[in-house]
C-alpha cells in the first residue's frame, strides 16, 4: 500500500480464524414456519453439505424439530448421515456415479429412479433385500426425472422388479420448474402431471405411493403441490425464494481483523487501485477472499459489521483477503468483523451479499470455502 502514514505491527495478537457458525435454533424456527403452512410430511433437504451449513448439524436439528424425512443428492452423503445415528428415511435423487444397490439396501437409503436405464441398473444387481425406490417423473423441468412418454415403460418394469423382490416402490416424485417465486397458477400443469403419474402408478397395481413435488417456495405458498410430503431445503437455512415468510438465517460468518493501517487521502487500495481514498482514513484487512466464497463481483455498496457499525469493503476482492474502510475508527487487529448473519438492522445478511453480487443467497452459503472453520452455537 502506498501513502501509509502509520501501521500497527502487533507481534502476538491471538486471532480467531474466519468462522461460519451454524445457528440450530433458526433451523428449528424455520421448520415450525413450514409446519404451519403444510399438513404434509416434511423432508429436510440437506444436500451440498446442508447448503454449506454442515449436513449433519442441519439434519439432526431438523429431525429433532419434526422433519420426518431427509433428502440428499447421493448415496454417499446419505450413508454418512446414517452413520451419525439418524434413523429417519433418507432419499437420494441424483446419484451421479450410479447406485450400489447393496449399500443402499443395507443402509436403508431410498433411491429416486428417473429413467428406465437407472431402473435397469438397479435390477441388474443382487442386493440382499429390495431397494426402496421413488419413481421420479419429469413434471415439466426437463432436468432429472422420467419424461412422460417413458412412463408407460418405466412403471410396468418397476412392477416386475418389485414382484422379483429387487425393488420396492415407496414413493413418487416430481420437481417444480418455478422454484423462485410464489405462483400457484404456474405450478398447475406440474400438479396435473403429478396426479396423472400417481394414477398410473396405482393402476399398475402399486400401493398408494408417498407423493412429493414441492420445494421451499411451493411449501410456503401453494398447498395444491404438497401431496404427501414437501421437500424443504433452502428454507431450513433461512432462504425463502417466495419472499412470503420471515425465515431465520441459520449462520453467521465472522473474520478477525488481521492488519490495520492509517492511509493518506489519494491512496489506491488493492489490485489495480480501483478504489482511491478521498480522505485520510483507517483501512483494515480481513483474511477472507474469493477462495473463501466472498464473491469477487460485489458492488461498492458491500459492507461488513464491526461493533454495530457498517464498514464498506473497498477495492478488489483478492483470493485470500478483503480491505474495509473504517473511516475515523481505528480497529485493532483481532477485532471480530461479521461478514453476514441474522438480520438485526446493521449486520449484512446473505440476501445483501446476493444482491451486491447479482446472485441468489443459495450461492453465497454454498460457496463458503473449506478453510473457513465451522462451528455450532
Ligand atoms: C434442491 C432440491 C430441493 C430443495 O429445494 P429448495 O428450494 O432448496 O427447498 C427439492 N427437491 C429437489 C429435487 C432438489 O434438487
Features:
377 residues; alpha/beta; Lyase, Ornithine Decarboxylase, Chain A, domain 1; 20 strands
Report on this structure.
The chain is elongated. It folds into two domains: 24-237, Alpha-Beta Barrel (TIM Barrel), CATH 3.20.20.10; 251-376, Lyase, Ornithine Decarboxylase, Chain A, domain 1. The chain has helices at 24-37, 47-51, 55-64, 75-82, 101-107, 116-123, 151-163, 184-203, 216-221, 350-357, 361-366; strands at 4-7, 19-22, 41-45, 69-72, 90-92, 109-113, 131-136, 167-173, 210-212, 229-232, 251-256, 259-263, 268-269, 275-276, 281-286, 303-306, 309-314, 322-327, 336-340, 373-376. The protein has eleven helices and 20 strands. 45% of the residues are buried. It is an alpha/beta fold. Residues 1-5 have low confidence and may be disordered. It has an eight-stranded parallel beta sheet with strand order 9-8-7-6-5-4-3-10. Pyridoxal-5'-phosphate is lined by residues 45, 47, 93, 175, 179, 215-216, 231-235.
